[in-house]
Structures are given as structure tokens and as C-alpha cells.
User: Which sequence fits this backbone?
DNA sequence: CTAAAACCTGACGTTGACGTCAGAGGCAAG
DNA sequence: CTTGCCTCTGACGTCAACGTCAGGTTTTAG
């Protein structure tokens, strides 16, 4: 049976599974100072439980288009609440970038939506009858 | 002086400038069947005026995370309104993907926003607040 | 104790959307 | 005709975020 979040230290495989990323990704994060681990005498990595949240956060920031270089700058600020004016600037800029991205995506979604609606209408109406005949769908 | 959207056919440099992409990008699009051009006897590419809109559309779809392979599948459908059931399926799937992406980005933005607000308050008041509180696991 | 599973460190491979360079040809102006 | 910019076709370079493989050690299940 799988270890029930026991007292044994969390190793890389467990963290990977629980955070939903690959083992390779975790080692990559460590290489790039996004994530730290305590090493056992044998060299194996041990993680605290909150590493799961940290990895999820990293993933979320990646998904928002931030580079690992940017993330590594913002992470201490995000986790420790340590904020210099410069970092606050950076945070604001990234938020603005994310906002723009949202707007762009919304417009794209609307475009796709409209397209789908049009095509669906065309299919429902235009197949059996040309033009404008038949009852509208409920 | 710059040509005033004249009668001379639009060449690659002009299209690049007007659509806001590089010349290299346009050749790349043509290589991957996202964009077509008429060739002069000398081999130079000529574009119709609406190529500008097409390029902008391509950019928008890229920004939404679609690959060129996906775009090339959907483009005829988007521009000509020619939709098979399979393509309609594809459109819907992409729309759903975009929706999910929007949700994720909104949550990221809120997280950043909250962080900025907290940090700003902390700065105004004088000391930093306790660190970040993560979302509950699903 | 042993075999399987998990982990380690390099180090090279992958993918997408271009950037960049080389070498050659085309086109309007003076 | 020459100058200077634009364009052409290859073809190699780049960058990020990992994937994958090799060859060896450690931990765990039975």
C-alpha cells in the first residue's frame, strides 16, 4: 500500500505524484532555484509537506506565461511576503501582463463561440431546408 | 516617403510592418500553410490587403496557445465558414481549452492582486504581513 | 538476503516559432 | 550604370522546459 502521508520524509517521487508533475521537472526546478530540498546523507532529496503547494504555485505561474527567471525573482516575495519596492513594481507589471492576456483570450473565446454558434445554426437549419424554415430548438 | 496603401502589390516587408510581425514569421507561416501568396515572375511574394487581418488572426490564435498544426486545421473553417462536424468538434474543444486557460489566469491574477494589496498595505502600515496562504487541495 | 523499485548525476535529445547569416538576385532613383 | 534597399532560398542557431537514456547507488518488499 502507498505511504499514507506518514512521518517518513517526502521524497521526490511522492512530491511529483502529489503535485502532478514529473520527477525530472522537480530536479529542473531545483537546478533553477525555484525549489529547495534537504539532502539525506545518501544524497536523496527530502521535502517538507508544503512543497506541494509551492510546486503547484510554480505550475500556475508557468501557465500564466512567466519564465522561470521571473518566477525565481518573485517567489521569495510571494512565499515570505518579503516585498521591496522593485519587486512590487515587478508584481504589478506581471499582473498587468496577465490582465492583457485574459482580455486577449476572452476575445478569442468569443470569436470561437460566435463561430460555433453560427456553424451550429447553419447545420441545424440548412441541412434539411434551405433558408429559414423550421422551429427553433428549445 | 512610404507608399500610401497604393496600387502596387503589397510585398512581404509591408505586410510584416502592417501586421506587426517579422518577415521571417511570414515565410514561416507560408511554409506551414497558414498563409498563401501570389508569386511575381521574379519570385517575390504578393499579398492581398486582407492578408493583414489573416496574420493578425494567426497571431491571436498563437497567443491562445494553439499550435500551427491546429491553426492550419481551423483556418479554412474560420475564414470560409466551411464547417464539418469533425471541425465543429475541434472548435468546441479549443474553446473549452481557452475557457480553462482563462479561469486559470483569472485565479492567478487574483492571487497577484491580493499579494500586491497586502504588500501595499504592509508598506503603508510599516511591517510585513504573514506569508502567503495557499488554496485548499482538491 | 535478494530482487525490484526508487533515486542519484551527468549529458544528450526534443519541440515550436521563429532569429540570423550567407550568397545571389530584383527594382526604383539619380 | 551604380548605389542601396528589398527580396529570395537554404540552412544552421536559439531558448525554455523538460524527456530520455546510461550507469551506478539506495531503499524497500518479501
Assistant:
Amino acid at each position: 500500500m502507498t505511504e499514507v502521508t506518514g512521518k517518513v520524509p517526502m521524497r521526490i517521487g511522492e512530491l511529483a505524484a502529489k503535485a502532478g508533475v514529473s520527477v525530472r521537472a522537480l530536479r529542473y526546478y531545483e537546478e533553477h532555484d525555484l525549489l529547495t530540498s534537504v539532502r539525506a546523507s545518501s544524497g536523496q532529496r527530502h521535502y517538507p509537506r508544503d512543497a506541494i503547494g509551492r510546486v503547484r504555485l510554480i505550475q500556475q505561474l508557468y501557465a500564466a506565461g512567466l519564465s522561470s527567471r521571473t518566477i525565481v525573482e518573485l517567489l521569495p516575495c510571494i512565499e515570505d511576503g518579503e516585498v521591496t519596492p522593485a519587486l512590487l513594481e515587478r508584481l504589478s507589471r506581471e499582473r498587468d501582463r496577465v490582465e492583457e492576456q485574459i482580455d486577449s483570450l476572452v476575445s478569442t473565446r468569443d470569436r470561437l463561440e460566435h463561430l460555433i454558434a453560427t456553424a451550429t445554426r447553419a447545420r441545424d437549419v440548412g441541412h434539411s431546408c434551405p433558408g429559414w424554415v423550421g422551429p427553433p430548438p428549445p
